[in-house]
Design goal:
By secondary structure, this protein is an alpha/beta fold. The chain is about 45% helix and about 15% strand.
Length: about 400
């Protein structure tokens, strides 16, 4: 039976701050029950990293918001007090709302990305001076030809392309914008980790993160090409490994490659999948073993079949590769049979085509070139796997 997202947060080992504040109101028996539940959740709560895979639309962003409200509910405090009790920092789709375009509609000029300044952006940009590091990281993920420039007050950014006349007035793509915002956030996290790595609080440049417990990252940039996405995942893994042991991370993603690289880089033993049920409830299921590591090989299979389709050189063995791709994708996603990933309307038919073509035993079948119709089936079934349900990268 499914659960509301609040219960999923509890499964992650997070204590409700309001409940903790009111724990003295419980009688002895109820306190014992709370203690037993804490013991039950202790193994989960002690994990340094909890890595969660979910399709788009499964509630990852909602989970991050409920997580924050649970561990750090808002109180009636002033800004100075609020800064002193930061317990969770999270990155999700709403993080991008801190940035917006002033398009300069007059003659399509003066385009600039504006920053809704808060205590965190002021700290990382004005006090810690990380602007140049943000620019360097952005160019590494995108292109050295695109140059961001902060204004003196760090309230806006303009972008230029080397060699173009209208250099300082371009509007970058949505994918590049998301990448830039992630670079700001990553630099922010990196600086926090460095500050918290100083043992004595009085020696730190800031004490507003002294009580930080969790960092929640929901789907960082997925518009990058595969090489840069791998680099991003490795950077996140290095950041986690260099952070104080008391600081915990929860990472959610719909990107199989990002999940796979993080799982391997962190030498994880278990991952999770978040499911949304038809009745609106949710389930969080453990993923153990090799099913977490399989997507590196998936990418090789996918690219091999795509190249054959592009070159018009589909052979019989590509049916075997296609079936292998379906099998490993089903294994990763937790489906009991790879057949469950086939199109529903002609599942038996497509199964028969793949099985017959990939397991042919007669000599004339083994060497015969696939027919035009069979080649179209390879293309159709790969597109089904990639675009319709299981692989496509979409913005939330």
């Amino acid at each position: 039976m499914g659960k509301p997202l609040k219960k999923i947060v509890e499964e992650l080992g997070v204590k409700d701050e309001k409940s903790e504040c009111n724990k003295d109101k419980y009688n002895k028996n109820k306190r014992k029950k709370v203690k037993d539940n804490k013991v039950k959740n202790n193994k989960v709560q002690d994990k340094k990293v909890q890595l969660i895979y979910a399709f788009n639309g499964m509630g990852k962003t909602r989970l991050s918001r409920i997580f924050k409200k649970t561990i750090a509910p808002k109180r009636e405090v002033n800004e100075e007090q609020e800064e002193a009790v930061v317990k969770v920092i999270y990155y999700n789709a709403f993080t991008e709302d801190l940035f917006y375009w002033d398009n300069g509609l007059d003659a399509d000029e003066n385009r600039k990305l504006m920053i809704r300044s808060n205590s965190f952006t002021r700290w990382i940009l004005e006090y810690e001076g990380q602007g140049n590091n943000i620019i360097t990281l952005f160019q590494r993920y995108t292109s050295e030809k695109i140059t961001p420039r902060f204004n003196e007050t760090y309230s806006e950014i303009t972008f230029s392309i080397d060699g173009e006349d209208n250099a300082n007035k371009i509007k970058i793509s949505k994918g590049e914008e998301s990448c830039f915002i992630w670079c700001v956030f990553y630099s922010f996290l990196k600086e926090i980790v460095e500050v918290l790595s100083i043992p004595e609080p009085e020696d730190r440049s800031s004490n507003q993160f002294d009580r930080l417990e969790y960092i929640f990252i929901d789907d960082p940039v997925s518009s990058l090409d595969e090489n840069h996405l791998i680099e991003l995942a490795v950077n996140v893994a290095d950041l986690i490994k260099s952070s104080p042991k008391e600081l915990k991370f929860i990472i959610t993603t719909h990107n199989a490659l990002f999940y796979n690289v993080l799982y391997n880089e962190l030498n994880s033993k278990v991952g999770y999948m978040l499911y949304k049920n038809e009745d609106g409830t949710f389930d969080l299921k453990e993923k153990k073993g090799d099913s977490n590591r399989s997507f590196s090989y998936h990418l090789f299979l996918k690219q091999t079949i795509e190249k054959a389709i592009e070159e018009g050189n589909i052979q019989k063995y590509h049916f075997t590769l296609l079936r292998n791709l379906y099998e490993k994708t089903a294994n990763f996603l937790g489906f009991p049979r790879w057949l469950d990933l086939l199109p529903d309307d002609k599942q038996a038919y497509y199964n028969r085509i793949i099985q017959f073509t990939s397991h042919s035993t007669l000599s004339n079948e083994a060497v015969a070139e696939p027919t035009t119709a069979e080649k179209q089936i390879v293309k159709f079934l790969l597109n089904h796997l990639v675009k319709n349900r299981y692989w496509e990268e979409k913005q939330q």
